[in-house]
Design goal:
Layout lengths: L1 H41 L10 H22 L14 E2 L6 E5 L4 E4 L4 H6 L7
Antiparallel strand pairs: 1-2, 2-3
Helix pairs in contact: 1-2
The chain binds zinc ion.
């Protein structure tokens, strides 16, 4: 009985904190996005030597949306998928793809495993 009351109190506290937690996480997400954009505007592409800029973030967002759409259309509707984003920036000059390393606050060239290469739809097949 005491355990149930304790669980109820924890759930109640969580529900009461939701109006604080949701805006906080949205704001945090927005700030991280802005910071990533600022880093991209100063980041020099390791392949072609040009600045990748905020355009690289937008290209990666579009590319990731396409990838998710294609994966969702090919999977069974009843299956829950857990997708891990694999591209955070694409150089608008040479199409070099980058992942963002949160801990180091920088972009690194995306390494593609042969298995993922098989799963990910090709850009030129669209
Ligand atoms: Zn480049």
């Amino acid at each position: 009985m005491i355990k149930n009351i304790r669980e109820c109190i924890i759930v109640l506290i969580f529900i009461l904190l939701l109006p604080i937690l949701v805006p906080f996480s949205l704001l945090k997400n927005q700030l991280e996005k802005r910071k990533r954009g600022q880093l991209a505007s100063r980041f020099v592409c390791l392949e072609c030597g040009n600045m990748i800029g905020v355009e690289a973030i937008r290209l990666a967002d579009e590319r990731w949306s396409e990838i998710v759409k294609i994966i969702m259309s090919k999977s069974d509707p009843g299956i829950r998928l857990r997708l891990v984003r694999t591209v955070d920036a694409i150089c608008p000059h040479c199409c070099c793809q980058y992942r963002f390393r949160e801990t180091e606050q920088t972009f690194v060239v995306r390494e593609v495993s042969p298995e993922w290469e098989r799963l990910e739809p090709k850009q030129d097949s669209e």
